[in-house]
Every structure is written in C-alpha cells, then in structure tokens.
Amino acid sequence: MDNPVRTDKEDAFALKEKANTGRNSPVTGRTTRRRYPCRCAESTVNDFALSVNCQGLPQMFGANSGIVRRVVWFILISGGLALAIFQIVDRIEFFLSKPVAIQSDVVCPTSALFPTVTICNFNAIRLSRAESLHVKGLVEDVYPLSRTISPNFTGYSFARYDWKSFFESVAHEASAIKVCIWQGTKCTEQNFTTTFTDMGVCYSFNTGDGAALLRSDSSGSQYGLSLTMDAMQHEYFRGFAGIGAGYKVMVHDPREPPLMANLGFSVGVGMHTLAALKMYNISNLDTENWGKCRRNMTLKYYDYYSHSACRLECLTDFIINKCKCQFINMRAPNVPICDPKQIFDCYEPNRNVFIKEKGQCQQECPIPCDSITYDVSLSQAPLSDYHTGTFTVNNVKPDYIKNNFVQLDIFFQGISYERLEQYPAYNPFALGCDVGGAMGLVLGASALTLCEIMDFVIVWALRGKGKRLC
C-alpha cells in the first residue's frame, strides 16, 4: 500500500522527531536512537519557517511546495508584509504626533466672572482738542486723509513732545459715557480705567484695578452692563483708529491686553446693540502630559501669560529692534514712544514685515494651558424716533442722538459656561492594538510571533553567528 502524502507541517514535525532519542516516531513507527546531525543554516531557517506562528511560511518553505507555489506565496507574504509595515509606520507617526481630543462639560456655577469690556471711539484725535493745543496743522500734515497721500514732516520737531501724553490729551474722554448701569445700579466714568491700545486711548470696565472683579449671578440684559455713549461726530478728525462712526468694543479676560484693531466688534451710531455672551473655560495639556502648552511661562512686560499678551510682546521686541521705539499700546520700560515720523517710516512697514515673517509668533508663543474666552452673539436695532424724542441727556436734540449716540447692552445669555479640556486621543495600548491588528490581519502573526523571531535570532547569534549549528 502506498504511503499517504504528508503535509508541510507533518514534514516539520518529523524533522523534529528525528532529533529525539529513544522515542517512537508517530510517522514511521520506528524507534530511533539519539543522534546529533550537523544541520546547515539553510535547514535551520527552513525548520524555523515551518514552525513559526505566521501564515504562509509553511507553504513557501514546505518540502512539497513547487517553485510556482513558492513564488506565489512569496509574493503574497511580501505584499502583506509591506502593507503591515506601512500601517505600522503610519500608526507610530500618529502616536508620535501626540494627538489630543476635547472633552466638553457644561458647568453651572452660582455666578460667572464678568469680562473686562474695553471701548474705543473710532476717532482717536478730537478736533477741538487739537485746535486748543495748537496742533491742528501738525495733525493734518502727519495724518493725511488718504493713504495715497504722503505725510508732511517738514518743519516739525517731534522730540519736544511726550507722545503718550499727547495722545491722551487729544483723545475722547470717559465723560462720553453718558449712562452706565451695572445690574440695575448706576455706575459712572469713575468705574472705567484708561487703557492705551492700538486704536489710541480707550476705556475699560471691570479691570480689577483697585477693586474686586465683578461677577454675574444670572443671565439676561438686566443682569449685565448697559452703556449709553456719545460718539461726538462733530469732533471727528484725522487719526489712525478707523473710519467708522461709533465705537469698537472688545470683551476679554481681565488679565489679557485688548487687541482692538484686529479683534472686537463695532457698534454704530443710532443703534441699540445687544451682545449676549457665552463663556468658555479652556484647559490644555502641557508638554509633560502629551500636550503643547508650557506651564510656568513668563513674560517680560506682562504679569500673566496669555496668547494675546505674548503676541504683543513678540511684536514689541521686533519693533524696538527695528525702530528703537514702541507704539503707545506697548509696555517695554525705558523705551520712547514712536513719533509720527517713526510710525510712518518704520513702525508701519516693519509691522507688515512682522505679520509676514512672524505671524502669530507660534514658536515664541505656545497656546496657554488655561484660558477664558467669550463668544459674542450680536443683535442690533436702530433707535426709534419715539425714544430719541423722549431721551433727555443734557437737553440734547433727537437728531443729535440719532447721529451720535450708541446704546450697548452686554450680558450673559446663560449663567452656565462650557469647560473644554484636552486629553490624549491615542495611547501606547491603542498603538499596540493597531500594530497587532495590522500583523494579524495580513500575516496571521501576533506579538508572540515577534518573540519567536527574536528568540531564533538570539539563539542563532549565540551558537555561531550564522555558521553551521551542530
């Protein structure tokens, strides 16, 4: 009777049994005596390929496999190995990128911190103040109406001016705030702090300077800040703040400097503007815990680290290095304020260079680990003829009110706030699962297969570094 054809794994098993002593071979039924055959490296690799836990290798190295079968399985295994390596490399790169996810929780406190409200008139220089200080001609020469017209600096000695005091003396005063009401209680211009911004002299409410920061314990316009302001269009003159009629407003964390020229929202004259706020408390992971923010970051010119403060400090250092002066909203000590000629010739061109080269100063200014932001939802309606006719502020006329007055209400739309917290989106265990999944899907291998390969390599190296194993 003919012997049945043995499989590849039976061949491998028979080879192992031949190395045993005094045992009956389940294949031949004979008793073999202990021998120590000297096997070459090729035979050792074949034995390992037939016994390792990896699909396809027995078919490629089996004694009963022909050349065509071996080539086919070699192509399949090579393709599977390439696919597995591609997937594993992709997962490792993803792991090293330190991905994060955001967990959102709604917090309902008994009260919420009311933001600082900074307001700037679009007109930085009052006409009457320029006339009384005898600088009207200077302002007209150095601040032309059109950007296509070059300013005239001839005949002026700018060194005799203290430019920070100059801009403060010609700016609109806090008395332009005609009515101030905080949660039903009257407030005055004394509750506002003078703030120098990139739009000139502005005024901030709830800065915490000399008083506790205000909090709101309920939502709705009656539990917020209500302002009636006079834009004084008859005082509009040359300047750099803007061309609108009304105010630029920004709500921000009291610890952050306001970047008025780039952020905030506008409120026009003759309009009643409602600004509903939603607060976000954001917590980012630091560099020691998978994130990108750096704790204990300090700034030279500001007590508290924030992204806006760091950007302004980055711009300050850049401008000082180029122009040897700073703009009025910058805080570098012992550095003079740029005069109009320096602003035109150096500050503005280099600020544009800074925007192109530095942008957000991402290298110098990582994201803060903790921050508070406010999302603003605006709605507007024009002041009605009836109410402007009955409105009495120093006996002003209704037409003047419609052309100059601004009504602004700022309040929380909900006393709850949203806390956004980062956490690692990919961990070492998930990486191991993906690597194991890639190996198992296309090769039928596992982590123990890697252990088998490492064991074989170590044993090979220790017994002869690839030479004949005896």
TrEMBL record:
Topology within the bilayer: Multi-pass membrane protein
Any single GO CC term annotated in Swiss-Prot or TrEMBL for this entry: plasma membrane
InterPro entries according to UniProt: ENaC, ENaC_CS
Annotated Pfam families: ASC
Keywords from the UniProt entry: Ion channel, Ion transport, Membrane, Sodium, Sodium channel, Sodium transport, Transmembrane, Transmembrane helix, Transport
Primary location class: membrane
TM segment ranges: 71-89, 438-462
Domain of life per record: Eukaryota
GO molecular function: ligand-gated sodium channel activity
Cellular compartment(s): Membrane
Record-stated family: Belongs to the amiloride-sensitive sodium channel (TC 1.A.6) family.
Name by which UniProt lists this protein: Acid-sensing ion channel 2-like
Origin species: Lingula anatina
